[in-house]
Amino acid sequence: MQSNNTRKRPIKQHPLLPKGVEVIVPPPPFEACTQVDRLLVYATSLIIVGSPFWFYGGIIWLYRKWKQYTSLAVQCADGTCTNNVTQEDNKRCIVDAERIEQYARYKKLAKRFGAALAAIILLSILGPHRNEKLGTALGVRKWRLWDAWLNYVGFSVMRDHGKTNHEIVHPDFDMKSSPAMFAFIPHGIFPFGLAFSCLPERGYTNTWGPFRPVVATATKLFPFVRTLISWMGGVDASRNSVSRALKTHQRIGISPGGIAEMFETYPKAGYHPNDEAVLLRDRLGMFKLALQHRLPIVPVYCFGATKMFRRVQLPHFIETLSRLFKISLCLFFGKLGLPIPFRQRLLYVLGRTIFPPLADGEDVSMLENDDLNQRVREMHDAFCDEIVRIFDRNKEHYGLDHKTLKIV
């Protein structure tokens, strides 16, 4: 007689992985990254990652040209030539005629540079090209470009099913479609870990499913990055914006360490080269939102995210200004000193899902402040423990057995 009990799918186990770790997306072979892939990565890195350098440098150059030709036109504005002139004034008349011609030329050039400057600034502010529907129409998630990037970084995903002290089982939860918040650790100099998890269709199809990325307001300063984020339906990192997105879409991805986490690495004082740091100790906002909307949090550690760029340690007040204005005043470099990332394999490890510690039908709004804070702290502690667990269990496989993870 046939049994009514459905069998669970066996976990794909690799002999060199810790027990309970499932390979979801194996890394592509090293040779999968062709010379064409490298050229695409290098070109787009200079255009996208390096956009603040050439974009604002270009604006400054246009402004200086506009100011230069405007000033020259003003200097020539007093040059006149009349019909009633004496013989002695012939030379001066010729000079004045040349000035009139120069004035017209400088005025024309000033108008051209001024128009170009105004058009670029207006386009960067208004951004009609950033409509999410346009990104869908262009099929941005299926571009050949992203295959080049995923081959370059050796994109791979694993899931750690190992036991944890905070395990709560919800059999109805579906990683690819259920409402959830995905927390990607660490941020890195540039959030490649978050970007490759939601932009290329190949990245999320067989892993965690589509979601909307939560991004810092400062990303608006990156012209092309801002456009891509708009096409993905990006959500501003303010609490109100995230809360509104959770009410409607209920699937978001976030890097909780944010811009401030960029500075919590070596060569900062107090850090050793063997330290990996994540900024989580006082980051409770994500967990408050998870409780408010009764959403689970999926912890994801992205090995290699901090190694794609190197950072120059600047004076401490630069870090203070960055946190104050919520903008990354950071000096970084990649290959050949350019904004081209080093080729570093990105390994995503999904941990056990952290569910809100709430009973069925329990109303969060009815909880006392002390009780609510306790639930938030409980969820926060469970998340931190899970991040440390999946890091320690998988670091040797990645080749970082000498590294130590610090929660700061």
UniProtKB/TrEMBL annotation:
Gene Ontology cellular-component annotations: endoplasmic reticulum membrane
Membrane-spanning residues: 39-63
One matching Pfam family: DAGAT
Biological processes, Gene Ontology terms: lipid metabolic process
InterPro entries: DAGAT
Endoplasmic reticulum in keyword set: yes
GO molecular function: acyltransferase activity
Keywords: Acyltransferase, Endoplasmic reticulum, Lipid biosynthesis, Lipid metabolism, Membrane, Transferase, Transmembrane, Transmembrane helix
Enzyme class, first EC level, given as a word: transferase
UniProt-listed Enzyme Commission number(s): 2.3.1.-
Places the protein is found: Endoplasmic reticulum membrane
Membrane topology of the entry: Multi-pass membrane protein
Family assignment from sequence similarity: Belongs to the diacylglycerol acyltransferase family.
Name assigned to this protein: Acyltransferase
Species this protein is from: Cyclotella atomus
Phylogenetic classification of the source organism: Eukaryota, Sar, Stramenopiles, Ochrophyta, Bacillariophyta
